Amino acid sequence: MTPTPGQSIRPERPRLRARTVGIAAALTAFTIFAAVRVGFDLSTFWEVWTNPLWEKFWPIPWEWVFDRENVLQPFIETFQIAVISTIVGCGLALPVSFAMSSLTTPNRPTYLVSRAVMNVVRAVPDLFWAKLMVTAIGIGAFAGSWALTIFSLAVMVKLFSETVDGADPGPLEAAKSTGGRHTPSLRTGILPTVFPDYVAHALYVFELNVRASVVLGLVGAGGIGRVLEAQRQFFRFGRVLGVLVIIFVVVWVIEQVSVSLRKRLI
Amino acid sequence: MRERRGAFAVILIVAMVWSISGLEVTLDRLLNAPGDAWAILRQMVPPAFAQVHERGAVGKIFESVYIAWIGTVIGALLSLPLAFLAAHNLSPVWIRGPIRQLFNAIRAVPELILAVILIPITGLGPWAGTLAIGIHSIGTLGKWATESIESIDSGPIEAVESTGGRWVSSIRWAVFPQVMSTISSYWLFRFEINVRASAVLGMIGAGGVGSELVSHLTFRDFPAASAVLVLTIGVVLTIDTVSAAVRRRIITGSVGSDDPSRSAEAMSDLTGIKHR
């Protein structure tokens, strides 16, 4: 087509494809259906502000919140759960991740089995693990630590095995070509190159664990959530809000520290 | 280097001892725990699918999926405009500063905590869970979207501005086409996370399958509990697989190649950990 003077050539506008329209319509229909099923209610957004319950959240009884026994003690417990489960979970994750990466796995069956098991473990949400552990070994922080250990292991192997997948295979081949056995070759050929990522992932898992351990108490697995649950059941919303403020500040600080550490590591 | 390694090991050991000291661990509890867990695991086989089906567990699982979907939609719709206002190449510092802080603040509050606040206001049920997930999603989705907007090529924006286009036009014609594929794959990724989150929300009465699991475990009806667990795992894994496939299609389609390193890159973006 030759341009006539005063007219420019424009590319033709792409036509809407039937498939695109179909996908859009299906998504919209599903969204509307789902919205009806969850009781979508726009009026909540403005009714929230006039809800008389807000007054119950106020004033926050600060002298209760800052009492050692009430909040500080359970908070330390929360922290201890997060620390121990991060260390144990990430420690266990190191060998499992090597088994789960096609680059470093000792043999094919180990690779397939560890992947399948870890996929199933990761599909169970963290608090489901907590509830299961509480039922199995009793209420308290001990059950919570078990649950979070399993959860950290599942998250860590996912993140770290992908790092191992992407590692440079050269040093490993060099180590193997000298006749090195499997485990020593991994230690000298792969581990040094991926270790900074390992620590960075572990810090990220620690952040997740702090957040998860805050809510563990809601199902009886110890930590600050236990206080939250108790006060909520007695409708002491002022105290609930006070605890929430503390949680918010602590989680915030830990995240900032962890993010800056991770940036320095990588 | 050797001293640093030693110091690192000492810190780890001290942290472990300190944590264990607070957890009421006795040797006898530690030794009994695997046995107790095994005893319950044995009672869980075989799962009582017929019984939980009669109680409507399947409907509850779908309710969890609906909660996650609507929560993601709410989060996506609210976070998208905010992300444009939070990107340093599109908005001035006095607007983007507060919005970034808002994202950070929202991310610091877990969904369950939001649900604890929302339940007295909306009442028990799926709507409380949906709102909690929707609000929490704004934080992460907003942050990811902002990051992908900030990493775009500035050429198209300059092109639109040079023709006299306004801010809105440059968003529509220069920014949108560059970022929407990445951002929509983030939405899907968040949906996968939200399915797990909404299952958990049921445990405190915010709708979905969590309430079923809690009631079966509380009454120590282990075959029923394991049936609920198996169904949940099945649904979660199915959604993960389908969604991951769609995300891969979106991401690789957008750069015109099926280079597998792209999805690794997206994964590292999503976890906030950058690879070298």
Protein model, in words:
The complex is a heterodimer of chains A (266) and B (276). Chain A is an all-alpha fold. Chain A has 2 domains: 19-56; 57-265, MetI-like (MetI-like fold). Helices cover 75% and strands 0% of the residues of chain A. Chain A contains 12 helices and no strands. In chain B, helix 7 crosses helix 9 (167-201). Chain B is 80% helix and 0% strand. Chain B has a single domain, classed as Orthogonal Bundle (MetI-like fold), CATH 1.10.3720.10. Chain B has helices at 2-21, 27-43, 49-54, 57-86, 93-107, 111-122, 126-150, 155-162, 167-201, 210-218, 222-255, 261-271. The radius of gyration of chain B is 23 Å and the shape is globular. With 276 residues, chain B is an all-alpha fold. The chains are: A mainly alpha (266), B mainly alpha (276). At the A-B interface, helix 1, helix 4, helix 5, helix 6 and helix 7 of A face helix 1, helix 2, helix 4, helix 5 and helix 6 of B.
Characteristics:
heterodimer, A: 266 residues, mainly alpha, MetI-like fold, 75% helix, B: 276 residues, 80% helix, globular
CATH third-tier fold name of the largest domain in chain A: MetI-like fold
Shape of chain B: globular
Estimated share of beta-strand residues of chain B: under 5%
Whole-number count of domains of chain A: 2
The oligomeric state of the chains shown is: heterodimer
Q: What is the H/E order of chain A?
A: HHHHHHHHHHHH
Low confidence ranges of chain B: 255-260, 269-276
Radius of gyration of chain A: 26 Å
The CATH superfamily name of chain B is: MetI-like
| Integer count of domains of chain B | 1
